[in-house]
Specification:
Chain A: InterPro entries: SBP, YnjB. The complex is a heterotrimer of chains A (409), B (212) and C (557). Chain A is an alpha/beta fold and 409 residues long. Chain A has 14 helices and eleven strands. Classes of the chains: A alpha/beta (409), B alpha/beta (212), C mainly alpha (557). Chains in contact: A-C, B-C.
Chain lengths: 409, 212, 557
Amino acid sequence: MKRKTLLSAVIATAMLAAALPGALPAVAAPDPDNWQKVLEEADGQTVYWNAWGGDARTNRYIAWVAEQMQADFGVEVEHVKLDDTSSAVARVLGEKQAGNDDEGSIDLIWINGENFAAMREQDLLFGPFADALPHFALTDPDNNPEVVTDFTLPTDGYESPWGKAQITFYYDSAQVDAPPQSIDALLAWAKQNPGQFSYPRIPDFTGSTFLKQALIELSDQDAALYQPVEDSDFAEITAPLWAYLDELHPHLWRSGRSFPDSGPNLRTLMSDGELSLAFSFYPTDAAVAVMEYELPPSVRSYVLEDGTLGNVHFVAIPYNSPHKAGAMALANFLLSPEAQAQKQSLDMWGDRSVLAIGQLDDSDQAMFEQGEQHPSALPVDALSNTLAEPHPSWMTALQDTWLERYGVN
Amino acid sequence: MNDAATESLTLEKVCIRLAGQALLQVNTRIAPGEVLTVMGPSGSGKSTLLAFVAGFLDSAFDAQGQVRLGEQNLLALPAEQRGIGLLFQDPLLFPHLSVAGNLRFGLPRHAPDKHRQIAQALEQVGLAGFENRDPATLSGGQQARVALMRLLLSQPRAVLLDEPFSKLDTALRQEMRALVFGQLREAGLPTLLVTHDEADAAAAGGPIIALG
Amino acid sequence: MLRYVPVLMIALLVIPVTAGLGMVLLPAFGYLPVLGGEQLSLAPWQALFSQPGLWRSVAVSFSSGLASTALALLVVVLFLAASQGTLLDRSLRRLVSPLLAIPHAAVAFGFAFLIAPSGLMARLISPWPSGWQSPPDALIVNDPWGLALTFGLVLKEAPFLLLMSLAALPQLQADKRLQLARSLGYAPTIAWLKVILPALYPLIRLPVYAVIAYATSVVDMALILGPRLPSTLSVSILGWFNDPDITRRFMASAAAVLQLGVTLAALISWWLLEQLVRRFSRHWLTNGSRRRGAATLTVAGRGGLALTSLTALAALLGLALFSVAGFWRFPEFLPQSLVLDHWQRSAAMLAAPLVTTGVIALVATGLATLLVVAALENEQRQHLHPRRALWLLYLPLLVPQIAFLFGLVVAAEQIGVRPQLLLVVAGHALFVLPYVYLSLGESYRRLDPRWLQVAQSLGISRNRAFWKVRLPLLLAPLLTAVAVGLAVSIGQYLPTQLLGAGRVTTVTTEAVALASGGNRRLIGVWALVQAGLPLIGFIIALALPRWLGVTQRESNR
């Protein structure tokens, strides 16, 4: 008898739990312009921040942010570690599909480019809110269009800038004397050093970025790249790119019969000695890898002569987030000089700031001063030459064509 | 069926110990066509003796002595090369094979005219035409008879019987005793029977050793 | 109450799977109103079939799934045939159960590092005698035909099939049969193959089918070891479901349905293969051949399993080395320095996921075990033979996860169940339950009914006899089943991630997220933690009955 009661109790509990709906009823979205009200509402909220979790240093920085938010604003920040940002996009979509319009599971999402464009198009984002964040002005948006433009699309306040990335090449100076300084030189270099270079398999983000970099250089920065792809002759503009890749692939790692599956995977191959030239979207990547024993101290970073592709990454709030106030408080804190300086520090993460540092108070500027430059890191002045991201539709079109041409070996 | 064997089975100064304690001691010789009965209560080591002779003795036991078939030292051979047939209290017909399949399993690989041999064997035990039956559809007595013929078809040089009749009912038991001992004697095989049933020993008609 | 348990159990397993499949089938035919798909159409299928390399993906999924299962089964069967209870055989068997506990992803990482051109094996022979100063440019891992994936799968499948076989063997009177066949002159290996295997195979057929279903649709191992141009179907599906271009979901759903078809086709092919083998082995079984090939088979049997186990161990060793490695460059066989940085930095992050992992695994396994025991007890009391319903129990193992989990999330949302811890627990139970049933069922049914008859004749009620007699007698298999359940739960990635909206962080989700960063040292730390957890479960399962047994016997004196 005893067993039966126990069993039925357990089953009843399980069924009750399964039937229990999400949580509390929805609250009206807070008004970003009444900042005091936002902070009051944020106090006590738990913000689920979905951010790629593949990098221990990023995770460590987010953990630091969570501590600050709890102490200063009473906001609990939970880092939801993603292996792929687009899975979060898919989740919001799934929620919308099921009619879950105010109890979404994501409050803040680390995003840019393609994912942002997709979410905007499907009306999956809350906003505009970014312009109302008190710290937003520190980015000097009037003189820094990249903080309000994402892959040529205006952000319209639907996402708030967080950090900056730019393609940075790195090589082992103990093995390579003269690394290639342009996309054309890269081809020649690969012919001389077969199997020593590769790029991540499309549609990987870093791999797609390499395609865009090559296309920009090979097409002499064709203005059409900054308009939707439908408006131009894709085949004609990209012909030089495919000719280039056709020639390059036989000289790549594994003769182009396989590609690394991600940006970080390039670093692993470099670490294993399989590659001697690689690139990353994060300028401090190589220096960090040296500090973590992944790469030899002889590794050096550089950017191509005519510049490399760079962009800003953002945070956005899904339309059905139940904790929008907390999410805005967090987005604002991320823009504070303190948080941006911590982020830029090589000891913490090493991600570049989006603030207009020259316009900050002296005391704030001082926070950004770092000690000695790490020899494997990119010299600070090297990053001035940034090429802008093409319209996001180009990325999709390039990916599709690449897969058609090279997707089956 | 097979030429009458002429070798005898010799157990010379066999002594089996478990954890240092002597379990049993046997010193005997079984002539061709003779049945030696080993009797004793359960736990006396009867089955251990069979396992030793057949080559399945658990490594926990420690055994000394010689076992010879004719002049050949059996202990040096793995179980399958000793030529010793076993009959258990369960007939152990393989359920994945038909009756004929079970018998065929017993026949040597290159035996001539297997089909006829199997038919004859079945006829000998009153099961003519049972070739394609599933063993599971046979009665206990029928299964026991098939098991016996499987044993004989494999042309053993000696036979060990492990309480082979204990699971049969009384009437059947009489009949099977007559059949088994008759067949074994006819084949001239030295046979070692372990049992706790006096009637088995009487029917076997050979010498008796009591254990325990 | 008890008699409703089987129905409840089957409902708990079948409803989520069918609901999930339903919510994938609709978009596969163009119906997904939120994305503007309001009419049924074949457009998703047209889009799918125009994907470059689709048929190659299908072929690799199909062939690696079938080949790995066949290879694993061969290794297991030959080992069992060759095994004669020697010390070597017994230690090999003991080595295998912990291997079962190690999550697939961890094995895959280790294996990849073992066989890569810059991996441990290449380092062992470099620079001498190979002469390699830098790794050779050879496509070994991620080869286009999925050979690395196939072998990686074998490493995990062989232990599973071996344990399932060992669990089924006792009911076959294997020792007696073997003795009999040997007394008829059969060499032990041949005897095993001729008289035990034909009876054993039907008993392990379901586990074999589960392995095929798993291997044809595996995601985590295929991501690490599988081909990339194109990848296996399952990996492509994951990519399409996660594509920023949200309209790809139509095509992804169609692909999920295609995956179901591929798995089904593999199962049918295997079944046909079974019929062929049965037909052609009939003659061999009774041709009287007693010794031919025995020696070769014996060597192959021991060698195969030894190779499998040692490879898996070496893979783990590689991970362990990386978790403490300082700088470590090809062709050095050992790291230049050993450091604890990676463990120290991870330690702070470990605590919370460890607790969550433990809670989920314990609750899901507890729930599953409770249901399974209740169902088995009911079966015993009603003298039932649940043969047909049994197949339904295995539905979650036979339907690829990737084919119904995405749909399940949508279905759950639709009835207002938000992703949360309890949903994750329920999702884990879905996969834990069949495995617990698989491990416990046979021992439960085999327990001699006379034990309970004696107890009841002594005046003890049926319910009391259950607690006082049956459970203590079944303690060892029960604990093993629990350990298997815990291991299954701990290894789950996709259900945890999808049903928990990523908010439920377990050791496994953490490990996979970090894996996307490619830092092998951190992967080593997390994979070892991930592998260590279920190992603890197995050690407890092995040690507890022994310890309890000893104290019981002593108190009886």
